[in-house]
Amino acid sequence: MSCIKHLHVLYLAAMACFVMSCSSTHYAAKHTPIRKQSSSTASLQFIDDIHVYPEQSRSTASSASHQVGEYGMQSYSSSVTTAGLQEKFARILHVTPAMISNIALYRFIDTWLGTPYKYGGDDEQGIDCSAFVQRLYDEVYHIHLDRTALGLYRIMDLIRNQADLREGDLVFFHTGHGKHINHVGVYLQNRYFVQASTSNGVIISNLDEPYWKQHYAAGGRIKETNAQDMAGR
Q1: Residue 132 domain-assigned (yes or no)
Q2: Rounded distance, CA 47 to CA 130, Å?
Q3: Is residue 98 a contact partner of residue 65, using CB atoms and an 8 Å limit?
C-alpha cells in the first residue's frame, strides 16, 4: 500500500513540473519582442537626405525640360500639337496664344531649342549662330541667306529703331572687341529673339537683358520683303 502512495506522489510531482514548463514556454513566446522585417518598399536614403523610392525607378530625364535662367535652354517634343505649341511659346514670349500664328516658325524653333553650340556646325549635333539663321530661313521662309553674320549684315535693310522690329527680322550684335558684327539672331515678338549662343546653344533671349542690350548693333530685314512674306509659308 505504501508503494502505491509513493508512486502517486511521484506522478503528481511530474505533472506539476510539466504544467510549469508549458506555462514558462507560453510566457516566453508571448512576451519576447518580434524583430520587424525591413520592407522591400522602404525608401533608400543617401547623402543630402535624397530618397529613392521603388516606384520612381524609371528615369524621367528624357521627358524633363531643361532650363537655364528664365528664358534659357529648353528641350521640347517636336510632336506637340499646334495648340500646345501656341500655349508654350505664348508663355515664353509673354504674349497671347493667338499671336503665335506662324506655326512653321515656332515648330522649327521648338525642334532646335537646346541644340548645343558648335563653331562651324550646321546640324543637330552642334550649330553656330549664322548657320542656325540660315537653316531657319531655308526651312521656314524658303529664302537662302549668306552663311556669316557679317555677310548677312551687309545685305540687309538696317533697322535702327528697335520699335520697328517685326517677327522674322534679324538682330545683329558685336560681342567681341570694337564694333565688328559677329553674332546674329532672329527676332520674334515682345523684344524676344532666338539665337545659337556660344554658352547655352539654341536659346530664346531678350533684347533688354544687360549683355544683349550692351552689344546690340542693329536690326536687319531682307530687301524688298514685306510682312506677308514673313508670315509663314
Answers
A1: yes
A2: 45
A3: no
Q: Which residues pair with 51 in a beta bridge?
A: 45
Residue 29 inside a domain? The answer is no
Count CB-CB contacts under 10 A for residue 49.
Answer: 6
Residues 92-132 have pLDDT tens digits of 999 999 999 999 999 999 999 999 999 999 999 999 999 99
Cell of 179: 564694333
Q: Summarize pLDDT for 40-95 with one digit per residue, the tens.
A: 333 333 223 322 222 233 332 233 333 333 444 444 445 689 999 999 999 999 99
Q: Is residue 116 part of a domain?
A: yes
Q: How many domains does the chain have?
A: 1
**63 class by beta-carbon count within 10 Å (0-12 exposed, 13-18 middle, 19+ buried):** exposed
Find the angle CA(31)-CA(19)-CA(26) to the nearest 5 degrees: 15
| Residue owning grid cell 540687309 | 156
Beta strands (DSSP E) in the chain are 44-45, 51-52, 122-123, 126-127, 156-159, 170-173, 183-187, 192-197, 201-206, 216-222
CATH code, domain carrying 131: 3.90.1720.10
